[in-house]
Structures are given as structure tokens and as C-alpha cells.
Specification:
Shape: globular
Number of helices: 5
Helix content: 25-40%
Radius of gyration: 20 Å
Largest sheet: 5 strands, mixed
Distance between the termini: 44 Å
Order of helices and strands: HEEHHEEHEEEEEHEEEEE
């Protein structure tokens, strides 16, 4: 009897530890909204993206194909557990923009925001509060946010990021998608565009679940995709495109699909 009680106490203690670890890893709603039915507009910044004979043009059109199917996949369905997010055609928004001007070598965060504003002011599409405006830059440029830089910059700190700012018509959600030109932002054996699909997957889901103080981990500050970034390894999934694992509160772990 004593032995059995000790065993039960041990099991109970392990159960409490597991519950505590799950609670520490859980995504929590901090009161901000989600994007229930999201759209993604690409802004391809650089002349090579519009040049049909350039590899960058294929890179751009492949990202469009990835975007157009992503919102109805099992990989996107994982985030429908967060505040009623819905499966959606992410490509059903206003048109993408191929901006043939050359971006600066160092694309600062303020430059990204200005580029998104040029999308509106240039008549390429009207502002929409459910849209994420994703700026894609060529390998000849790198992104910087303060002293942090992407591939191509003096010190790799990130591969992509998303954010928001106050615009004339409302809160603009955006991301910067630098070219994955360094080993720190690559999966061995993957093409450049597959690596970029992986980051578009990551930043899009995070912008949907946490556009402005939405779902994130209260203990670590990590968003759902951050908690599963690189571990487990990103994978080739639905329709042969590249994705990463996503944190699921429903199973308290990283999953591929739901």
C-alpha cells in the first residue's frame, strides 16, 4: 500500500509538472484582435521581379501560387483554433504590385512602411484592414530594424518579420520578406523560393493571430510560429510547398496540420 501511494504521488507530481509546462508554453489572448478572414498582398520591390526572363520573376510567381492556396490548407487550418480565424483565399484581395524601382541596399523598417504607403498612394489598391502587405526584396538588398539585420546585412538577427503601423485609414499590417541568401535562413537542399515560402508561412500566420497584441506566449513573448521555428524542421507539405510546424494549444505541441 505504501509503495502504491508513493507511485501515485509520483504520477500526480509528473502530471502537475506537465500541466505547468503546457501552461508555460500556451498561447494566450492578450485582448487584441485577430484577422478572421485574412488576405495577403505582395509588393515585389525591384526590377528583376517584373522581368519575365529573370529567375526572380519565377520566384515571385511561385510565391503568388503558394499564397493562393495556403489559406485553405491544413497548415493554415491549425490557427483556426485562435479566436475563430477562418480558412480563406489569401489571394482574394487587391492586386499585387510589381514595383520596378530599385530598393536601397539597406531597406530599413521605415523604408518598408513607406513602400506600403506608396502602394496606396499610387492607386495600386485601397487599404483593407484584413490584409497583410508583404514586401519582398531581392538578394541585392537586405532588411534592417534598428541594429538588427537580415541575410546580406552585417549581422544576421532574423530572416523575416511582421509588424503594424497607424495609417490614414486604419492600422496597417505588413511584413518584410528579405531574400533567404544566407545559410542561417536556409534548409539544406531547399531552393531559395522554398525557403521563402517557409518564411511567408511563418509571418502570415503570426500576423493573422497576433496583428496587434493578440495571441502570444505570456511567459516567453513568443508567437505561435516562433515556438516551433526550426524545431521540428520545416517540411514540404500540401501541394509540394514549404511550411513550418505551428504551435497548437489544442495538443500543447507543434503540429504540421489540423
Amino acid at each position: 500500500m505504501k509503495s502504491r501511494l508513493s507511485k501515485l504521488a509520483s504520477v500526480f507530481s509528473c502530471g502537475l509538472l506537465a500541466l505547468a509546462l503546457n501552461a508555460a508554453n500556451a498561447q494566450t489572448n492578450h485582448g487584441g484582435p485577430v484577422i478572421v478572414s485574412a488576405k495577403v498582398v505582395f509588393i515585389f520591390w525591384g526590377p528583376t521581379f517584373a522581368n519575365a526572363s529573370s529567375a526572380d520573376h519565377t520566384y515571385a510567381t511561385t510565391l503568388q501560387a503558394f499564397r493562393n492556396q495556403f489559406g485553405t490548407t491544413g497548415e493554415y487550418n491549425v490557427i483556426t483554433q485562435y479566436s475563430g480565424i477562418q480558412l480563406t483565399n489569401l489571394g482574394s484581395g487587391t492586386p499585387d504590385w510589381f514595383d520596378t524601382s530599385s530598393p536601397p541596399t539597406n531597406v530599413t523598417d521605415s523604408s518598408v512602411r513607406s513602400e506600403v504607403n506608396r502602394y496606396f498612394s499610387g492607386g495600386h489598391g485601397a487599404f483593407n484592414s484584413s490584409t497583410i502587405y508583404e514586401v519582398v526584396i531581392p538578394k541585392t538588398s537586405f532588411s534592417s530594424s534598428g541594429s538588427s539585420t537580415s541575410c546580406g546585412g552585417p549581422s544576421l538577427a532574423y530572416c523575416a518579420y511582421h509588424g503594424s503601423f497607424s495609417g490614414g485609414s486604419g492600422t496597417v499590417k505588413y511584413s518584410i520578406e528579405p531574400y533567404p541568401s544566407c545559410s542561417g535562413c536556409k534548409v539544406s537542399g531547399w531552393s531559395d523560393v522554398q525557403n521563402q515560402e517557409h518564411f511567408v508561412c511563418h509571418e502570415t500566420r503570426e500576423a493573422v493571430t497576433d496583428p496587434v497584441n493578440g495571441w502570444w506566449n505570456s511567459t516567453t513573448g513568443a508567437e505561435a510560429d516562433d515556438q516551433c521555428a526550426w524545431s521540428p524542421s520545416p517540411f514540404i507539405g500540401t501541394n509540394g510547398f514549404a511550411y513550418q510546424y505551428e504551435w497548437s494549444n489544442l495538443v500543447s505541441g507543434c503540429v504540421r496540420t489540423r
